[in-house]
Write a structure and sequence with these properties.
Aldehyde Dehydrogenase, Chain A, domain 1; Aldehyde Dehydrogenase, Chain A, domain 2; 2 domains; 7-stranded mixed sheet; globular
């Protein structure tokens, strides 16, 4: 795939970039390694000042970088501005909390003495150079939610971003440089996917994090395992959105539209499979379908646009295949079901609601990465749980109920990294984010995320050191 900015609203190639050669990559690896040896000795206050400065710059440049993201991958401009704002907020959160999150942990005196120590504690130390392989769908946020905790922990980062968002990728490297981070703390590598293996196998790279497709995750995990290097993977999702009889159905239907179509439906944690109890199924389906059909599809640069184009022509083709397969096997499209009329250029797909889904249809098992919702009817909580878990994915889940017993049941039994009640799944710096099954492993954000790329070190004293 060429490294290029191609506007998905009209298919026009705006700018192309040459991939870095072997000598350029070697130079950046050497700088990253040398920088880590010094940067790891800085204290939290120094790192926080730099990260807050990066947040300042990002806030000042929010409009410009939002337009760049929209141009490169098609998200509505308002959503792009919100993404930039969220990144700045997360930078400030980690600048404020990293010292406490990574503070030494001291066992009780009695426990330390049981180990034979006069003193013992746990210290979180940085691992080193971390390679981040990131996707195009949230081109700023996916990177910052890795970079902010990694840099605050004392690590340094190498970014291999998706090849269709090169200008956003270059902006990120430049942002941290202008904020005052030492050269080599965070570098963007404009390389193709064929360069990932050699970079990851380099002994100067300590670990890797990847957000993306399952095949990409498997590849990175296999290489890292062969090298015995730490990885965190956030892969695909096909999140259930369950509506039970006690729910506020009107509210559930309204939120369901946003949960499915945010970012033009191209979100791993978007609700994709809507499971409604038979007592409220008809009402929910009617309200949901009506709202989906009313969405404005159009130029993502226009403030009135709800849904813009998909990020790539191939992405639209993949989505079309899933929907066409379902319809051929008996599913019904209550709205959408194809390209919207009047859009002869660009990679648009109409917001779609499908019913009559069966397990022989590909869309029942595969992730639909676009504004396509499948709606199911169930007659009991047992059926709801079984259907929700009938997927190879386990990223997050959404449940609408006001019944305490049902709440407890869903928390106990849903196979997912998150269970969100009476609202849509969202990520927040204070809460851990990640999945189970084929949605990946490890966690981002919160204290769990910042510790993923730390050497969790036991410090034990059989006698107090001299001078203590």
């Amino acid at each position: 795939m060429p490294i290029a900015t191609v506007n998905p609203a009209n298919g026009e190639t705006l700018k192309t970039f040459d991939a870095l050669g072997p000598q350029d990559i070697e130079h950046r690896l050497a700088i990253a390694d040398a920088t880590f040896r010094q940067y790891r000795t800085t204290d939290f206050s120094e790192r926080a000042a730099l990260l807050n400065r990066a947040a300042d710059l990002l806030e000042q440049e929010q409009t410009d970088i939002a337009r760049t993201m929209t141009t490169e991958m098609g998200k509505p401009l308002a959503a792009a501005r919100a993404e930039a704002a969220k990144c700045a907020k997360t930078m400030r959160w980690y600048a404020r909390h990293a010292g406490d999150l990574l503070a030494d942990e001291h066992p009780a005196d009695a426990d330390a003495q049981d180990s034979g120590a006069v003193r013992a504690f746990v210290r979180y130390r940085p691992l080193g150079v971390v390679l981040a392989v990131m996707p195009w769908n949230f081109p700023l946020w996916q990177v910052v939610r890795f970079a902010a905790p990694a840099l605050m922990a004392g690590n340094v980062g190498l970014l291999k971003h998706a090849s269709n968002v090169p200008q956003t990728a270059l902006y990120l490297g430049d942002l941290f440089r202008r904020a005052g981070f030492p050269e080599g703390c965070f570098q963007t590598l404009l390389v193709g996917s064929d360069a990932i293996e050699s970079i990851l196998r380099d002994p100067r790279v300590a670990a890797a994090t990847l957000t993306g497709s399952e095949p990409a995750g498997r590849s990175v995990a296999a290489i890292a395992a062969d090298e015995v290097k730490k990885t965190v993977l956030e892969l695909g999702g096909s999140d259930p959105y369950i509506v039970m009889p006690s729910a506020d159905v009107e509210r559930a239907a309204a939120v369901a539209v946003t949960a499915r179509t945010q970012n033009n439906g191209q979100s791993c944690i978007a609700a994709k499979r809507f499971i409604a109890h038979s007592d409220v199924y008809d009402t929910f389906l009617d309200r949901f379908t009506t709202r989906m059909a009313e969405l404005t599809v159009g130029d993502p640069m226009e403030e009135s646009t709800d849904v813009g184009p998909l990020a790539s022509e191939q992405g639209r083709a993949d989505l079309e295949e899933l929907v066409d397969d379902a319809v051929r096997l008996g599913a019904t499209a209550l709205c959408g079901g194809g390209r919207p009329p009047g859009f002869d250029r660009g990679w648009y797909y109409a917001p779609t609601v499908l019913i009559g889904i069966t397990d022989e249809m590909r869309i029942h098992r595969e992730e639909a990465f676009g504004p396509v919702a499948t709606v199911y009817r169930v007659d009991s909580i047992d059926e709801a749980v079984e259907l929700a878990n009938d997927t190879p994915f386990g990223l997050s889940s959404n449940v609408w109920t006001r019944d305490d017993a049902e709440t407890a049941r869903f928390v106990r039994d849903l196979a997912a990294g998150g269970v969100f009640f009476n609202g849509m799944t969202a990520s927040h710096p204070a809460l851990p984010f990640g999945g189970v099954k084929r949605s990946g492993y490890g966690r981002e954000l919160s204290g769990h995320g910042i510790r993923e790329f730390c050497n969790i070190t036991t410090v034990w004293y059989g006698a107090e050191p001299a001078g203590s």
